[in-house]
Amino acid sequence: MNIDHKHCAYALMRISFGLIFMVTGIEKLVMGPNVFADKLVGQFSNTGLPLELVRVFGAILPFVEVVAGVLIALGIFTMAGLSLAALLLMALTFGMLMLKETAVVAQNLLYSLTSFFLIFYLEFNAFALERRWENLRIGVPRVDNIPVASTPGAASQVVSPPPSKRSWFKF
């Protein structure tokens, strides 16, 4: 693989995006997940949403943000981290729509576009830990490259599956 400016740009965007999630999650954890959840319940008390659901969402949100941020920033299970971030952004945007916070909805749309482009251009994810791990495993025999004999006495040949589209959770 030839590393070029596109790979560098992707890495910078991916790390920045991951840090945003990680730092906002850590801030909420420092505040205290229950304190944050109670604050969220107060904020959503007039929206018609079930307050117990809001409380549960507020309690787990900091942990999910930190996990998604770490996965994205380090490039570990990048597709899973980006998918988690995109789903989280949809939930957060829905909440801001319920509060009629149009400025925050617009900001979340920009974050959603960032997650879309990071998913769409995942092939430029060269500077990620998952790519380094793939390079370390190159000499290891893989299950999909098992030799099979066509007929008795004939030479064995290796049958590899055709190249496939990238998997969502490829490691």
Number of strands: 2
**What class, by secondary structure content?**
mainly alpha
Largest sheet: 2 strands, antiparallel
Q: Which consecutive residue ranges, at least 5 long each, have pLDDT under 50?
A: 140-149, 167-171
How do the helices and strands follow one another from N- to C-terminus?
HHHHHHEE
Proportion of beta-strand residues: under 5%
Shape, principal axes of CA atoms: elongated
In total, the number of domains comes to 1
- Estimate the helix proportion, in percent: 55-70%
Q: Which key phrases capture this entry?
A:
171 residues; mainly alpha; two-stranded antiparallel sheet; 2 strands; 64% helix; elongated; disordered C terminus
Walk me through this protein's architecture.
The chain is mainly α and 171 residues long. It has one domain (5-129). Helices cover 64% and strands 4% of the residues. It is built from six helices and two strands; from the N terminus they run ααααααββ. It has helices at 5-31, 33-43, 51-74, 78-98, 102-120, 129-136; strands spanning 147-149, 156-158. The chain has a two-stranded antiparallel ribbon with strand order 1-2. A hairpin with a 6-residue loop joins strand 1 and strand 2. It is elongated, with a radius of gyration of 22 Å. Mean pLDDT is 85; it is low at 140-149 and 167-171.
